[in-house]
Amino acid sequence: MKLLPGPQLIMVLIDGLGDRPIKALENRTPLEAARTPTMDKMAREGTQGVYYPLGPGVPVGSGVAHNLLFEYDIEEYEGRGVLEVLGMGVELKKGDLCFRVNFATFNNRDVVLDRRAGRADKDLDEITLELNKAFNPNPFKKEIKLIHGFGHRGALIIRGWGGEVDLPEIDPQIEGMAIELPEGTREAELASFIFKTARKVMSDSVYNIKREKAALKPANGLLLRGASIYKPLESLEARTGLKSLAIAREHLYLGAARFAGMTTIQVDKDKDKVDKLMKNVHNYDFFFLHFKKTDTAGHDGKYMDKKKAIEEIDALIKPLLTLDNVAIVITGDHSTPCELKTHSGDAVPALFWGLNVPADEQVKFGERFARRGGAGQMHGGDVLRMLMNYAGRMVEYGL
Ligand SMILES: [Zn+2]
């Protein structure tokens, strides 16, 4: 499906944007209560709708949600491991097995005391070097590579593993619980080898003595999560002709964008993200701009923080309105209601604005306005298509 020529397309993704009315906000959601002059102008001049990422009432993780927004089918989702590893900038080949990893603190009976080793990353690069030596060579005759990411996070790649993988999380999720290692399959043996080797090497590591001297919790084991095998899929550009740029901070979102074949730029500070887009505005056809703070506030149940984060983003995206050849959608990847402190299967608001985009009757962006908006009710894969459609870039079906 190649597109017609027309305006450039921008997706502003406000993570976990959707919410529910909150009493303390006079029964408004954080988005409805936020002071958002930029989005209000866009609401007056554009069209809103709501969408369900996968279906009404089905909560989804951020990785899946992004794949759906980039118009992949749910069956094409490969798991968090692959997305995290891609997001770290690692080149993957078909058949590579990926995990996302937590450096964690255990007691000597393999009970998890802290799933994030106090979130301290001191000496984790050095511990990673020790582990990579210990993992290779190994009885599986495959290269095992650990990469340290931000803070307590990392990723693990087993090159050329192949086949399918169905492994439970090597992570009890709850602190105070012991690890249960899977048994009976080749993957289970591999996970067991990695876990036990890591526990031994990390417990004996001189760097953990240094951490303890610095009053930090030891990083004496790994939690292995999101096991998945990489299979390359057709890129967004190959499917649509859109040369695409993603701007984000966290590995998962950069990874979801790389999975879709986009060029990525990692930008630490929200205030620099729009600037990066403006500098690259002549070089790409589609831009994906990701903001994370709203989701974190939702998970913490901090509705005032979520409202403030929305207000900050509103101010930051104002320069986008000076671009005269663009069509923009502002949306979330799922709802993270502050009262639930987790993702829900609620509808997510979406606001379309820009060249060729018609106006509906709504004057402010928010959940209840979006439900009455001109774009109606959509699914995850419809959002980008609707943006292309409003921008006048869709080719007539059946021609
Ligand atoms: Zn999310």
What does this 3D model show about the protein?
By secondary structure, this protein is α/β, with parallel strands linked by helices. The chain folds into 2 domains: 8-78 and 235-390, Alkaline Phosphatase, subunit A (3-Layer(aba) Sandwich), CATH 3.40.720.10; 86-229, no CATH class. 32% of the residues lie in helices and 20% in strands. The chain is built from 14 helices and 13 strands. It has helices spanning 30-33, 37-45, 62-69, 80-87, 124-135, 186-203, 206-213, 236-240, 251-259, 270-279, 293-300, 303-316, 367-371, 382-390; strands spanning 8-14, 47-52, 97-106, 112-114, 144-148, 153-158, 221-229, 244-248, 263-266, 286-291, 326-331, 348-354, 376-379. Strands 9-8-10-1-11-12-2-13 form an 8-stranded mixed beta sheet, sandwiched between helices. Strands 3, 4, 5, 6 and 7 form a 5-stranded antiparallel beta sheet that branches. Helix 3 packs parallel to helix 9, helix 4 (80-87) crosses helix 9 (251-259) and helix 5 (124-135) packs across helix 6. Zinc ion is lined by residues 15-16, 62, 65, 295, 333-334.
| The CATH architecture of the largest domain | 3-Layer(aba) Sandwich
The percent range for helix content is 25-40%
Query: DSSP helix count?
Result: 14
| Mean pLDDT rating | 96
**Secondary-structure element series:** EHHEHHEEHEEHHEHEHEHEHHEEHEH
- Please, how many domains? 2
| Global morphology | globular
CATH topology-level fold name of the largest domain:
Alkaline Phosphatase, subunit A
DSSP E strands, number: 13
Question: Runs with pLDDT <50, length 5+?
Answer: none
Query: Which strand order does the major sheet show?
Result: 9-8-10-1-11-12-2-13
Biggest sheet overview: 8 strands, mixed
